[in-house]
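Journal club side-thread
Mid-discussion, someone asked how the predicted structure for our own chain would compare to the paper's figures. Pasting it here so we can look after the session.
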Amino acid sequence: MPKTLFYVKIRFVTFSKGTGNNNLPMWIYVVLAILIIAALSAAVIYHDTHSFVVRNYEISTDKIEGDYTFVLLSDLHGYVFGNNNDKLLEAIRATDPDAILCAGDMFTAHRIKGRIQYEAGLSLLSRLAADYPVYMGNGNHEHKIKAFKGEFGNLFDRYRSMLNRAGVRTLENDSLDIEDKNIRISGLDLGYEYFRKVVKKQMEPGTINRLLGSSDKKAFQVLIAHNPIYFPEYSDWGADLTVSGHVHGGIIRLPLVGGVISPAIALFPKYDGGKFERNGKYMILSRGLGTHSIHVRMFNPGEVCVIKICGR
């Protein structure tokens, strides 16, 4: 098949007060430029809200022998990639992980057509649990249906029960050990007040100890904590690796700037996505997979994080 070459011929026009036959009013060119930019922006937003990428991260430690690979998922918000999330499952399986970490918000705690649409996240985690250990912590949307029983009844209990029956290990201010690898995984379930908008709630000293107990200093301590804004407190508690989500990568990402806005309505959040380090402790912050309320992602496709723990 012959190749077709596409090209754009650009003609520079000198504008003057005259009204020659070859000149158009300046405002027409301005309007055309705005329309082109709007169309390109719409195309990027559509692409990024309907696609995801796989990003790889590495962390070294002398607390485990050999390597161990986690896949981190967060903020699916009921999205589906391919039939029943088959594209997402295929991408995860291709990374050959040892276990799956889920940092919450697998659905949106808003009624759509009169009900909470939790099935996509439940199905994805259940299918993964058939092949891998899956460890899940709550996000603010899971916590919302848990905390407001007057509005949601026993939905959270039923949702958690279905996850547990599928083999998902749900961690709500609880911990478990991967003993043969000297890895401890803890799930922090913060109150809804720690997700309020505009004004950050200060975390009082000892809060994490009160909820979770002490960290395991001898093991490689993993902490699933949905809100990344408290990374200093997580690292001080003793988390060698914190995995978080919530910020959706800053929704719109700009070159050299990063994420533009967080769900807390904070501009240019410090923690927007990627790998962060503090005093030898690390956080991998997922940019999430879906959206809610305002369905916008720009220069910011969904993300599956592959975290390789490199041991001695």
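Post-session note: The chain has one domain: 44-310.
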